[in-house]
Every structure is written in structure tokens, then in C-alpha cells.
Write a structure and sequence with these properties.
By secondary structure, the chain is an alpha+beta fold. It has 30 helices and 14 strands. Helix 22 links the parallel strand 6 and strand 7. The longest helix has about 30 residues.
């Protein structure tokens, strides 16, 4: 039997089983959960499963689809393929379930594939006013992209003779010029534009782009960078033309990304509605709840940054370094802040993401976590002091960004230092600089092997990235700030405007979790997240069991329970999820509809197994401090998420709680969620979350009512 037919039989049997106990819509939802969770397991592709799901008869019964909350989400997976759903079923859904089909089209972005036979069929056969409005909106959204795509293609043709290094030189000059703008934000649209331009160039790079020698490097910079920084009469015309073309490409790319964000808003935000009215925007928010929610998330992130910095200050103050001059006297303050930030990052990465004292790299080398973060923070401090601060002074004097860059580069030459908009050195020289940051009792002069490992951890090999983009374009690629050393040939390059503005903590998390999600250490890190949480709960008196496997029930194996914690008649069942730090609404939507949806379903399956397990398993009762005569504890089920975006929200019936919020609540440190310039009186006013003392009930109230954020958002 064909794999797709086996999948079809599986979904049909699952649905029939669920209908014995559930209403038709709920039964279909359970079946769609199975599909979304990539069942049946085994050697089936996404196409096999999608084809099998689309072939099941339950789609033809309106009562099933009307009551299924997951119908649009599952159909979106089906619509990723042009040849797995019949046009007959498509027509049926368009007539009987138009809203759900339209959301499936939005989720799948089917309308962006203009040549898709499914999309062409729908446009030819759906003639109602509602469908015609929908088609018109989709077309308008795509038309908005076209002039910017054309401008980018035109600029690329004009600049195609430039090597990768030469393009990066012009890009760096213009990025400096935008620093006073949104360019200060590594998550801002300018940096996204630079990343996209670099990735597009890498896609077309040949081997010669990566064959760099000292002579080639010198000639390239003399031809393309020096005439801009040190202008001479009658020279620089070619550079001016190239710089203008790169600037036009950046502007067009920024606009393109902005309109692409509008499409993502249309596709993934339930608050986004649409219309075709003369003089009106085709898409608009029904309410401002989505915007307010994102603003609350940003505010939470800012306050949690303060929280971890306050904890790091405490650790630093208790250390031997607190009374020492770090580096030179003039750099001491910046270096001290870099040490505190490195401590902050280490605390955060170990508590929230379960990292150990060291990180194993793909080549087997290990880098000490503290040294990796310290190197990044000291690099940041160095580029801020040596490059960005003088540039801002020179810019204030002249008002001309390129004149300011020329003065910065000239002052550097007088001091024997490279202060160009793009810096480079051969790998041994770069390792020698980093070595000074790896001093320890064991290596008083620094550890060259550790320095090499640190450099590798933070380096993006652009030749390897070029090959990846060509061969596997859908694999994640590092963002500019996630790996701020760029290897081209035997040289290591850095952009001061990146290195001086880098968010090292987000970079480290996403380096490990987003760019390299299949690291073998990930499982042990996730287990450490659970054990760290268990330790925090035990300090508050909870009895805790990690990784409990309930006995099999009639419904089969419900799976391992991450954390069970019991205190004062309260029993917590916690499902722990660990991911990366998200930067846009689409990533948050994927997290909600994949990871958190699955976690909520796991809780729904596991919670009925807990109380019977307490009755049957005396070892479990003993571990949780319960006697057989004790009444059944009150069960609370939470998804504990290392992300902050959905903290406090209910997803598919399950409360999502940020791991960081649990940390603040268990340690009773709401007073650390404050800006550093906040009054001591204000700090006193929020001194404790538990004015009547800590108790299990009080802790439940603080979490389930989001009292950690009371008065702060």
C-alpha cells in the first residue's frame, strides 16, 4: 500500500476512535493534532501525511469541520503542496467553510505562489463577493512588493562586478551613516536589510570571492574604500556611483521587508482584517490588542534584562574583581560593565536554558561559557570606545558621515591602528587578541586553544554559508549579530557598527538554539532546565519529582511528566519547553501553533494520569511527601516556556508561564524588575510578592494572576 494511503487509513481510524467519546468537531481536532504532531510516525514525509489527510472523508461532513478549531491550521499544511488536495474538495470547502479555507490560505501563504494550480483554480471558480474581495486584497499585497523587488534587482545588476568584500565595504560605510537612526537596534529593519543583501550576494558568489590574499585585499580596499575615506581631486567617481547604488538597494530592501511584514501580519495575526475600499488600507487591525500585547512583551523583556543585571551586580560585588582595576584605568569602567554583562549572560543561560560551564562545538572543541560571553562583551566594549564614540564626536563636528569616517580612519593610521569601517586580521592575530581574555589560574597568560574555540563559536564562515544557501536554502542562517566575526578565506573580518552594538545574550541563545537546533547537547540542556527549576521549587519547600513516567492507561502511554511538585495540598504538573529568542510575529505564531499547542495537548493527556498514579504508586507519594490518607491535592497544570512572548496567555486551555517569571516569583525578586535609576522608595514599595509569607497558594495566585508584573506594565 502506498505511504499516503496508509496515512489516510491511520487518520480515518483515529477519527473513528475519537468519535466514540467526543463530539464531531472535537474528534476532528484530536485527529488534526495527530497530523500536526507528525503522526503516524515512521518513514512518512510531510507530503505523505498531507495527502493522506486530504483524502479522508471527514472533510465532506460540515458538522465535523464547523466544530474543529484546528481545521485551518491543518489545511494550511496541506496547501503547502500543489498536488495533494483535490479541486473537488477545495470547491466544497470554498462553499461550505469559506472562512476556514481563507485562513488556511493566509497561514500557508498560498496566494504568494501566483502560479500554483490551486490558487489559479480558486480564482477562476470562486465568484462570490467575499471571495473576490479576498482575491483583490491578496493581489494588492503582492503588487506592493514589485517596485522594490525591481529596484533591488536593478541595483544588483549594476553592482554585479563587485566582489563580496567590496560590497561589504560599501555596506559598512552606509551602515555607519545610519547609526543615529534605527540602525542602533540590532533587531531593527536596517540590520535585516543588510543581512538580506549579504545573503543574496552569497548566493551568487563564486570561489574567487573567497580567495583573499594580502595583495588582493589591499588592491580592493585601495580601489573601493580609500577613495571614499581619503578623497583626492579627480578620483572617487566610481566609488560614488557604487555607493549610491548600494544605498538605493538598502532603501528598497528596507521597504520590501516592511511590506513583507505587512503580509506576515495579514497571514498570522488573528486581529488583522481586510477590505477593498477606495482610499483605505487593504488590511487593518480590528482591535489594538495585538499591538498592545507586543508592547507588553517588549516591556517585559526590558525589565527582565534589568532583573538579570541586578543579579549579576550582586555576584560581581561579592567577587574578588569588585575592588580591582580591570585593564587600563581609562577603560576600567567599560571593562567592569563587560564583566558584569558576562556574568549576567552566564546566569541567564544556565538557569533558563540549561547550559553547563562549557559549550561543545561541532568540531569537538569546548569553550568555557564565561569566557565566550566575556570575549563578546569585551569586544563590544572595545568597538564602542575605539570606533563608535570617536565617530559620533567627529560626526557632530562635521555633520558629514563619510568625512567623520575618514577622520576616524586617519587618526587610526597615526596610531598604527585599523579604524576603517570594516576591520580585518589573519586568524592567528585575532586569536592572539582574544587570548588575553582567557586568563585563569590554570592559564595565567591565557589559553590559545580556548581563544581559538571562542573565535570559532562567534564566527560565520561566509564560504560555508554561501554553499549552504545554494544547497539548502531553507536552513536557518545566522543573523548579523549572532556570529559577528566573518571568515573570508584566511581573514577574519568585523564590522565595528555590528561588534559595538551587538546583543551578546540573544546572539548566544540563538547561535545555539536557532542556527544550530540539532546539537547533540540539546537534550541534556533541556534536562538541566527541568532540574534547575526543580531546585528552585525545592528551595521553597516543594517536594519535586523530575521525569516521572506514569503507568500506561487505557489510552496508551501518556509520556513522561517533566516536573511534578507538591506543597501544602497543591500539586503542580509542569511541561517544560525550551527554544530560542524570537524577533517577529511569524516566529511567535509558529511557536504558539507548534510547540505550545503540542505542550497543551500533552498536559491534557497527562493530567488524568496523575491522580491515579498517586493512588497506585507509593514511591511517587513518598517522593512528593503525600500520605495515602491525605486528600487528593489540587492539580495545577502549566506550560513552562523559556520564551517570554506568550507568558501569561492561555494556549489551547493551558496557561503558559515564562521560566524567568517563575524564577522571579520563587526568589521573590520583583524589586529587581526595575530600571537602574528607579527610586529606592519605589523599590521598597514592591519589596515582596508575599506580604503574608510564602505559601503554595500564594505562589499559585502570583503566577496565575500574573502578579509579578503588577504595577510594572
Amino acid at each position: 500500500m502506498l505511504p499516503s494511503l496508509r496515512c489516510k487509513d491511520y487518520y480515518q481510524a483515529q477519527f473513528a476512535g475519537y468519535t466514540r467519546n467526543l463530539a464531531p468537531g472535537a474528534a476532528l481536532d484530536e485527529c488534526l493534532h495527530d497530523f500536526l504532531d507528525q503522526r503516524p510516525s515512521g518513514k512518512y514525509t510531510q507530503r505523505h501525511r498531507a495527502s493522506g489527510l486530504a483524502g479522508v472523508d471527514f472533510w465532506w461532513q460540515p458538522a465535523n469541520v464547523d466544530g474543529a478549531a484546528l481545521a485551518s491550521l491543518a489545511l494550511a499544511r496541506v496547501l503547502h503542496f500543489d498536488d495533494v488536495i483535490s479541486t473537488e474538495l477545495l470547491d466544497h470547502l470554498a462553499v461550505h467553510h469559506p472562512d476556514q479555507l481563507r485562513w488556511a490560505i493566509r497561514y500557508s501563504k498560498l496566494f504568494t505562489r501566483r502560479d500554483s494550480p490551486l490558487w489559479i483554480h480558486l480564482k477562476e471558480n470562486c465568484t462570490s463577493e467575499q471571495w473576490q474581495t479576498f482575491f483583490g486584497v491578496c493581489e494588492r499585497l503582492l503588487l506592493q512588493l514589485e517596485p522594490f523587488e525591481a529596484a533591488i534587482n536593478s541595483a544588483e545588476r549594476q553592482l554585479q562586478s563587485l566582489t563580496l568584500l567590496e560590497l561589504l565595504s560599501y555596506l559598512s560605510v552606509l551602515a555607519y551613516a545610519r547609526l543615529g537612526d534605527a540602525g542602533d537596534d540590532p533587531a531593527g529593519i536596517d540590520w535585516l536589510a543588510y543581512e538580506r543583501i549579504i545573503l543574496r550576494k552569497l548566493k551568487s558568489c563564486g570561489e574567487s570571492d573567497f580567495r583573499l590574499s594580502t595583495d588582493v585585499l589591499g588592491r580592493s580596499l585601495r580601489q573601493h574604500l580609500s577613495p571614499m575615506l581619503f578623497p583626492q581631486p579627480g578620483e572617487g567617481a566610481e566609488c560614488a556611483v557604487n555607493l549610491e547604488a548600494v544605498g538605493a538597494m538598502i532603501d528598497a530592501m528596507r521597504e520590501l521587508i516592511d511590506y513583507e511584514r505587512s503580509i506576515d501580519w495579514f497571514c498570522f495575526d488573528s486581529e488583522c482584517d481586510y477590505q477593498l475600499q477606495p482610499g483605505q488600507s487593504v488590511i487593518f487591525n480590528k482591535t489594538d490588542e495585538g499591538t498592545l500585547c507586543w508592547q507588553r512583551t517588549e516591556r517585559k523583556s526590558q525589565l527582565l534584562w534589568c532583573y538579570w543585571m541586578c543579579r549579576a551586580v550582586d555576584v560581581f560585588a561579592a567577587s574578588e574583581l569588585a575592588g580591582q582595576i580591570i585593564g587600563s584605568a581609562e577603560n576600567h569602567e567599560a571593562n567592569q560593565l563587560a564583566y558584569i554583562k558576562a556574568i549576567r549572560s552566564q546566569l541567564y543561560l544556565q538557569v533558563v536554558f540549561g547550559l553547563g560551564e562549557s559549550i561543545r562545538l561541532n568540531n569537538g572543541a569546548e569553550v568555557t561559557l564565561h569566557h565566550a560571553m566575556l570575549a563578546s562583551e569585551l569586544t563590544n566594549a572595545f568597538f564602542e570606545q575605539a570606533y563608535l564614540q570617536p565617530y559620533r564626536r567627529y560626526l557632530a563636528d562635521s555633520g558629514d558621515p563619510i568625512a567623520a569616517l575618514g577622520r576616524l580612519a586617519f587618526e587610526g593610521l597615526l596610531q598604527g591602528e585599523n579604524r576603517f569601517p570594516i576591520t580585518w586580521s589573519e586568524l592567528p592575530e585575532k586569536v592572539a587578541r582574544i587570548r588575553a581574555w582567557t586568563v585563569s589560574d590554570e592559564h595565567p597568560m591565557g589559553d590559545p586553544e580556548a581563544a581559538k574555540a571562542i573565535l570559532q563559536f562567534w564566527t560565520s564562515d561566509l564560504q560555508a554559508l554561501s554553499e549552504q544557501i545554494k544547497q539548502a536554502p531553507n536552513q536557518p542562517t545566522p543573523r548579523l549579530y549572532e556570529r559577528p566575526f566573518y571568515k573570508i578565506g584566511r581573514f577574519s573580518f568585523q564590522f565595528p557598527w555590528v561588534a559595538g552594538r551587538q546583543n551578546s545574550l540573544t546572539a548566544a541563545v540563538n547561535n545555539l538554539r536557532r542556527v544550530d537546533p540539532r546539537r547533540p547537547e540539546l537534550r541534556s540542556e533541556t534536562e538541566r532546565v527541568e532540574h534547575e527549576l526543580a531546585a528552585s521549587l525545592r528551595q521553597r519547600g516543594f517536594r519535586v519529582v523530575v521525569g516521572y513516567q506514569p503507568p500506561r492507561m487505557d489510552e496508551g502511554d501518556v509520556g513522561e511528566i517533566d516536573v511534578l511538585a507538591c506543597l501544602e495540598g497543591v500539586l503542580l504538573l509542569l511541561e517544560v519547553k525550551s527554544g530560542f529568542i524570537r524577533s517577529n510575529g511569524h516566529e511567535v505564531w509558529l511557536h504558539r501553533t507548534n510547540t505550545l499547542r503540542k505542550a497543551a495537548r500533552q498536559l491534557k493527556r497527562k493530567s488524568p494520569a496523575v491522580l491515579p498514579a498517586l493512588l497506585a504508586d507509593s514511591d511517587l507519594r513518598d517522593a512528593l511527601g503525600l500520605a495515602i490518607s491525605d486528600p487528593s491535592p489540587a492539580l495545577h497544570t502549566w506550560v513552562v516556556d523559556t520564551s517570554i512572548e506568550l507568558d501569561g496567555e492561555v494556549v489551547d486551555g493551558a496557561l503558559v508561564v515564562s521560566r524567568e517569571v517563575l524564577e522571579v516569583a520563587l526568589r521573590d525578586e520583583q524589586h529587581y524588575l526595575r530600571a537602574f535609576d528607579q527610586d529606592a522608595e519605589e523599590e521598597e514599595a514592591i519589596a515582596t510578592l508575599y506580604p503574608d509569607g510564602f505559601s503554595a497558594q500564594a505562589f499559585i495566585r502570583v503566577i496565575e494572576r500574573s502578579e509579578v508584573w503588577r504595577g510594572l506594565l
